[in-house]
Design goal:
single chain, Methionyl-tRNA Fmet Formyltransferase, Chain A, domain 2, 2 domains, 6-stranded mixed beta sheet, 4-stranded antiparallel beta sheet, 27% helix, elongated, disordered C terminus
């Protein structure tokens, strides 16, 4: 069977799907959804038996999904809908999750279900879970869905109900250092790692915080910087403290996009009590 993978990037999951389907004897092509490209043109050029989207950040257009069977890998259980599914799961502290392969249609993530595989969701950063348990479940769900499609006898299950959650934006990720517990802060940081980070104020400047690990012993006034270690900074919460390993500056209009840096290196000579930090533009 000839399968076209439509993806926003040839990321680790797309690579695993590509390799696994080829190992199973399928002919597999890849098209990246880059600015200025049209998926309809790629489909017309490849003439696939099946279109599969392992990681696609844009919607499949109606002229494609009405003419071809298009399957989308959604990192959430049946009925879960929205582009920030895994962010919400990690932020809410879910211990089990799932990956669903569903058919593309006009309503996002509401199409018929071809396969769904459950998995544990350990207390780790979103990116770690995505590359680990979520990727394993996604691969299993893709293989099952492709086999079912190839059989020509399977009828996908319709979704009669669903819960659509909004994109998780910075207002949903905001940390209240005076009130939030260590557990809440760590889950918030993990849900934003590795992107987009959590926008926050630190030593008078605005930074995106990346990564988060609980501290066992140190305590202090909530929001206060307590210590540094191997590039990370320790910041007090309402009931304890967390280690923040990396910071990323807010982008200044007209300047290159900043990169993540070890927290102590990003802060440079700034110390607790400094009157002001670097001058930063509006967050992008």
């Amino acid at each position: 069977m000839h399968i076209l993978l439509a993806a926003s990037a040839f990321n680790s999951l797309t690579q695993r799907v590509h390799a696994e389907l080829r190992e199973r004897g399928h002919s597999v092509a890849v098209e990246l959804a880059l600015p200025g490209t049209r998926l309809a043109d790629a489909v017309a050029r490849h003439r696939p038996d099946l279109v599969l989207a392992p990681m696609l950040k844009t919607a499949i257009p109606p002229e494609v999904f009405t003419a071809h069977t298009c399957l989308v890998v959604h990192p959430g259980p049946v009925g879960d809908r929205g582009p920030s599914s895994l962010d919400w799961a990690v932020g809410d502290g879910a211990t089990r999750w799932a990956v669903t392969v569903l058919q593309a249609e006009a309503e996002m993530d509401a199409g018929d279900v071809w396969a769904s595989v459950e998995c544990p969701l350990p207390p780790v950063a979103k990116s770690d879970a995505y590359r680990g348990e979520i990727a394993d479940a996604a691969l299993a769900a893709v293989v099952l869905a492709v086999d079912r499609f190839a059989s020509g006898t399977y009828t996908p299950r319709p979704q009669y109900t669903g819960r659509a959650r909004p994109p998780m934006r910075q207002e949903h990720r905001r940390i209240d250092w005076q009130r939030d517990t260590t557990d809440t802060v760590v889950r918030t940081l993990r849900a934003a790692d590795s992107r987009p980070g959590v926008l926050d104020e630190l030593l008078g400047g605005r930074w995106y915080l990346h990564g988060g690990h609980p501290e066992d012993g140190l305590r202090g006034r909530p929001g206060e910087l307590l210590a540094t270690r191997t590039g990370a900074v320790c910041r007090a919460t309402a009931d304890g403290a967390v280690w923040i390993p990396e910071l990323r500056a807010v982008r200044v209009p007209g300047q290159p996009a900043p990169v993540k840096r070890p927290a102590t290196l990003a802060l440079g000579g700034l110390r607790p009590g400094d009157a002001h930090g670097p001058q930063l533009g509006d967050p992008h």
